């Protein structure tokens, strides 16, 4: 997996024996950021992973010579052990190991419409609560008593997919686990791209493993066979599951995409094949969900693991704490640090800087961090600079096409000599890499963010009219599928800040150009603040050093008065909600007292309310319509709300009953509730009493003054207060 070179284990054993980062080192090699350990318990058991014992609905395979299978297996293990013991791309071992629990929850097979790094923002995802190993994920769930044939694991670039595949293969080859599967064939998608001719499945395997050319391998259907397809997002050819020709014979020639579709849909080796596919999120939907038995997702570092990373990576405790504080102030950059590679970049750049955290500085921009990284890592000479420009062109053209791996023909299209590229790759490993593929070299940037960085650098340098090209880039990013140009745009706008002098010398007033760019982005945000791309546009404004839209959103949040009347109140509500939801921590106080808002507007702002500790929502003409949504918010595990004032709203019994249903849930941690003057009667008091009985340990203060419960209502409430664990201290 492209990433930081961090070793992540699912067990706490051996933590003390892990070596730490030497500050003289820069980036760790990215090939091994996930290490699940070499013990059998730390790796997925293929026998359990695919549950072959539940194959009662499948045809029993024919008998095959056990000695012959063992011979093939031993030969294959020797091949894989030799190949996977050495890291790819010419990298060398790095002395940095960090033990962290692998966040490996069940995932969903679906395609997002944001850049993958926007999808990890707290606004768009809820982190899995707790940690589980791949073993528990794959093997413990029940799927109608049928075996799991195909598992798909997704994760953003640098999170640990390829490294886990490599380590699992090596573990199998060394005989340390998963020995119930005698044959295991890793077939990376980036290498499958190189096979243009028609091949049978057997011939395909011979291409990857020519040492196995012998008759017995044709009997694949007679034994259990594992196929690991790593990097679905890197496969450039279409997978047509609807119109693909049917292939059932392992000796029948066909195109590579046809072989893949028939292997995945079960026409080829329906009983023998067990398939593991890894992919970045954007490519997951290329395989219909009906063929996937299990979907999982590798998540990145938790906040505590980020801090552990930097404290163990930086020897100076004070500097490590300063860097952590610096990154926490940068909300979006701190979120990105759940990606091991981004942590590695920040550690490589920031440990060289002697500073103390100062809130007057603005560490939120991502571009300066990558600029410093390039300056640190890249060998500086004239040839390097020329090569960087050509690589920028390659990066941009391939980024637009959605490609992250390149071949010799791609380099030639950008006038890059493959021999010069090989030399550059050897001396600039963290930036650009060369790897051995099937009969030719494969090239790729050290990480997708580096490709986007180079693409932005080249695009700006090639501009004839900066103002027009910046607007063009914004439009390109908004129209791009899956948000693939979002981070490119962020880097591009960040670069424009640094090119003031060079562009001014060409006769352009850059300050005016940047002002126009800021206004254009703000206009796009306010036209549709609920768009999935809005958060990235706000990050782009951060790169430009502009926070005026955030200020306007906070102003509306506090006063209820739109800063610009030409945009509807609903748009300002959406913006304020997004700003609060993307914060890294809760707000101290939320007061919405200036102007009445009503059910509809406050329902739109429920994420704001959940992120707050105190919400004053009195005199807002709220009804039971709002109470239903509020009750759901109160039961959320991520709700920070401790004090809620709903006084003098027309909630009535029906609204309070809905609210009480939320109060009764164990996840509700509300401590103070004011319902004064809400026209609550007997039934509402009875519902509140029932909630106190169900969840008595959180509510400390309850204000029910100005209502009409009657004797029966009071009786119900007193009955609720008799619960042994009731913590209520103040009742009005």
UniProtKB/TrEMBL annotation:
Chief location of this protein within or outside the cell: cytoplasm
Domain NACHT: residue ranges: 149-283
Residues spanning the membrane: none
InterPro entries, alphabetized: Leu-rich_rpt (IPR001611), LRR_dom_sf (IPR032675), NACHT_NTPase (IPR007111), NLR (IPR051261), NLRP_HD2 (IPR041267), NOD1/2_WH (IPR041075), P-loop_NTPase (IPR027417)
Entry GO CC: cytoplasm
Keyword tags: ATP-binding, Cytoplasm, Leucine-rich repeat, Nucleotide-binding, Repeat
GO molecular function, one term: ATP binding
Domain of life assignment: Eukaryota
Subcellular location(s) per record: Cytoplasm
PANTHER family in the record: NACHT, LRR AND CARD DOMAINS-CONTAINING
Annotated protein name in UniProt: NACHT domain-containing protein
């Amino acid at each position: 997996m492209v990433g930081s070179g961090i070793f992540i284990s699912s067990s706490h054993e051996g933590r003390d024996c892990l070596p730490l980062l030497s500050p003289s080192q820069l980036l760790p090699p990215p090939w091994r950021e996930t290490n699940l350990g070499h013990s059998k318990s730390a790796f997925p058991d293929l026998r359990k992973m695919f549950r072959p014992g539940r194959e009662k609905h499948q045809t029993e395979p024919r008998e095959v010579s056990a000695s012959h299978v063992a011979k093939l297996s031993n030969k294959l293990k020797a091949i894989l052990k030799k190949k996977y013991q050495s890291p790819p791309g010419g990298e060398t071992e790095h002395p940095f190991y960090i033990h962290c629990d692998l966040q490996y929850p069940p995932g969903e097979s679906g395609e997002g419409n944001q850049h993958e790094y926007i999808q990890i923002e707290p606004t768009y995802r809820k982190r899995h609560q707790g940690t589980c190993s791949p073993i528990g994920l794959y093997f413990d769930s029940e799927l109608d008593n049928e075996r799991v044939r195909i598992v798909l694991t997704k994760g953003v670039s640098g999170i640990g997919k390829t490294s886990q595949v490599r380590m699992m293969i090596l573990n199998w080859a060394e005989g340390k686990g998963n020995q119930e599967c005698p044959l295991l064939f890793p077939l990376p998608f980036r290498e499958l791209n190189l096979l243009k001719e028609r091949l049978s499945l057997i011939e395909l395997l011979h291409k990857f493993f020519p040492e196995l050319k012998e008759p017995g391998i044709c009997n694949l259907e007679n034994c259990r066979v594992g196929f690991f397809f790593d990097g679905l997002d890197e496969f450039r050819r279409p997978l047509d599951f609807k119109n693909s020709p049917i292939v059932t014979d392992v000796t029948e020639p066909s195109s590579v995409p046809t072989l893949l579709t028939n292997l995945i849909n079960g026409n080829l080796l329906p009983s023998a094949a067990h398939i593991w596919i890894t992919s970045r999120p954007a490519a997951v939907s290329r395989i219909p969900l009906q063929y996937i038995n299990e979907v999982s997702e590798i998540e990145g570092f938790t906040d505590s693991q980020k801090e552990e990373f930097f404290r163990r990576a930086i020897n100076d405790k004070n500097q490590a704490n300063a860097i952590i504080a610096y990154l926490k102030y940068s909300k979006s950059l701190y979120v990105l640090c759940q990606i091991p590679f981004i942590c590695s970049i920040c550690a490589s750049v920031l440990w060289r800087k002697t500073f103390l955290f100062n809130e007057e500085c603005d560490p939120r921009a991502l571009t300066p961090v990558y600029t410093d990284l390039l300056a640190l890592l890249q060998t500086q000479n004239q040839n390097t600079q020329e090569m960087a420009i050509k690589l920028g062109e390659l990066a941009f053209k391939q980024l637009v096409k959605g490609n992250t791996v390149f071949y010799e023909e791609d380099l030639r299209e950008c006038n890059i000599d493959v021999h010069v590229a090989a030399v550059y790759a050897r001396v600039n490993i963290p930036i650009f890499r060369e790897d051995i593929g099937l009969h030719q070299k494969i090239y790729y940037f050290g990480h997708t963010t580096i490709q986007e960085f180079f693409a932005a650098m080249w695009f700006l340098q090639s501009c004839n009219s900066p103002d027009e090209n910046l607007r063009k880039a914004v439009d390109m990013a908004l129209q791009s599928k899956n948000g693939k140009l979002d981070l490119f745009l962020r880097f591009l706008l960040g670069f424009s800040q640094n090119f003031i002098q060079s562009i001014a010398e060409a006769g352009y007033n850059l300050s005016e150009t940047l002002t126009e760019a800021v206004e254009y982005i703000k206009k796009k945000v306010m036209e549709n603040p609920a768009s999935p791309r809005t958060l990235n546009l706000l990050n782009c404004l951060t790169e430009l050093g502009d926070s005026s839209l955030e200020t306007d959103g906070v102003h509306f949040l506090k006063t209820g008065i739109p800063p610009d009347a030409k945009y509807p109140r609903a748009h300002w509500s959406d913006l304020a909600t997004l700003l609060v939801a993307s914060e890294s921590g809760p707000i101290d106080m939320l007061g919405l007292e200036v102007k009445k808002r009503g059910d509809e507007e406050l329902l739109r702002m429920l994420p704001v309310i959940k992120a707050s500790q105190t919400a004053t929502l009195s005199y807002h003409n709220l009804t039971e319509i709002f109470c239903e949504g509020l009750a759901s918010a109160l039961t959320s595990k991520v709700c920070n709300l401790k004090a809620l004032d709903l006084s003098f709203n027309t909630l009535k019994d029906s609204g309070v009953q809905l609210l009480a249903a939320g109060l009764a849930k164990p996840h509700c941690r509300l401590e103070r509730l004011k319902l004064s003057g809400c026209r609550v009667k007997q039934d509402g008091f009875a519902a509140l009493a029932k909630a106190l009985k169900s969840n008595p340990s959180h509510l400390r203060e309850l204000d029910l003054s100005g209502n009409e419960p009657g004797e029966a209502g009071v009786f119900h409430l007193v009955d609720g207060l008799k619960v042994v664990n009731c913590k209520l201290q103040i009742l009005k």
